[in-house]
User: What shape does this take?
Amino acid sequence: MNETSDTVNKERPGATLNGWFMLLVNLAFLAIVILWFAHLVRANIPQPSRAPFAATGQSMLLMALLIVAAVMAGGFFTLQPNEARVLILFGAYKGTVRRSGFHWANPFYAKGLGSVPGGPGKIKFVSRYKMSLRAKNFSSEKLKVNDKGGNPIEIAAVVVWRVADTAQAMFDVDDYENYVHVQTESAIRHLAGSYVYDHGEENEVTLRSSVAEVSQSLRVELQERLSKAGVLVEEARLTHLAYAPEIAQAMLRRQQAQAVIAARQMIVHGAVSMVEMALKELSERHVMELDEERKASMVSNLMVVLCGETEVHPVINTGTLYA
Assistant: This one.
């Protein structure tokens, strides 16, 4: 049986020198080489029998120093606020620089370039090892999935994230930005299948009525998935939630019917309370004494007036109460 183990890389600080100081050193070194070159040329002018650039020991050393100066110039780089650079020397991780400013480091640290879209028909080349630590937004596509009850729904979310560990983002996943996109869509699909869209059981969390709880659940699941890539999820929230078009009309009629039932229940409850209050007031103030039959008639008339959907036209009784 083959055993595999994943090595988790952890970020550590990288060593650099002040770029301005090293720039002065490099310029001074280059000036010395140029002055030496000029002295060598002047020394060869009075001797026409010798070539100005004869392969002498000094000229060989001069060429070597010129190469060293050119190589040293390749060690300069700058970092803006909330930027980092991963230092890699011949495949070995040497740390990460997070301090903004002008830096100088070993010129043999990797500086591989990658391409990203830079506009319509344009490609922008950036360093693969320079990473942004700024917060980024990812808005997912509208996904068509089934909720816990099997109803097809459309759902989308926006995720605010940033790189927290540059070593994990660089070495533990192939492409951390694509990893965020794929895992976000997978988490949204899993979330939709874990809750019903609406009208669940009593006190049940639903996608439509419990947005805060659902969003928090999505953020927690995303953090578990993306921690392998060294990504910190700062916020995750649903941006679109609706029934799929093929059942939207049927569900709309269902919601309308439930709304009508709820409204009628409220109206009946209010009417019963008003009738009870009217009978109680008449009895306590001794306005009139009503037997059970007249009370029933009064309750019926009041319920019709209070619960009726159309305007009620009163009928005036010109006779006695019992006529």
Summary: The longest helix spans residues 245-284. The chain has seven helices and twelve strands. Residues 1-5 have pLDDT under 50 and may be disordered. The helical segments are 19-44, 57-73, 166-171, 176-194, 211-226, 245-284, 292-307.
